[in-house]
Amino acid sequence: MTLMILAHPDFKNSIANKTISESLAARLPDIEIRNIYNLYPDYQIDVDAEQQALLRHKLIILQYPMYWFNMPAILKIWFDQVFTYQFAYGSLGNKLKDKKLLVSMTVGQPEINFQKENHFLIDDFLQSVKQSAEYTQMNYLGYTALYGISPVSGIAKNAIAAKAEQHSGSLYSLIQKFC
Prior knowledge:
This is Flavodoxin. About 30% of the residues are buried. This protein has a single domain (about 1-179), classed as Rossmann fold (3-Layer(aba) Sandwich). It has helices spanning about 15-25, 35-40, 45-55, 75-80, 120-125, 125-135, 155-179; strands spanning about 1-5, 30-35, 60-65, 100-105, 140-145. The termini are close together. The protein is α/β, with parallel strands linked by helices.
């Protein structure tokens, strides 16, 4: 089974992340989606509930918009509080061993801005996620990104939704491949 940790600070106004998660839920009725902003608007993470969710699944997807070249704050807090000593690491901390981790993010800027000649590489921004996965003995599967979807750039909402629907289809294919 697949677990999606959804971390969008303004999900009710989201177009892309909402479309991706809702479309994926329609394709995969057994997916568990944990919208951590809805669950923890006060940022008080229920560590036991989150750890139990991780234990139930083989594939974990982190779904979020890129914020200032990083993950939203609540997702960092989630990592800090949920990936605990003797759960995720330490002499007895092998609970995440061999689980698969895939990042699915939305990026407002166009993909060309993240090519080598522009010095902004998504792989660089994801090093902390990759290292966290490796440190906890998870299998880091890389990332998939949906670029150029910022409504402030003048892209129509229906065009963003269409691109997000395509991204969801690609994500669905990756889930089928990895499960």
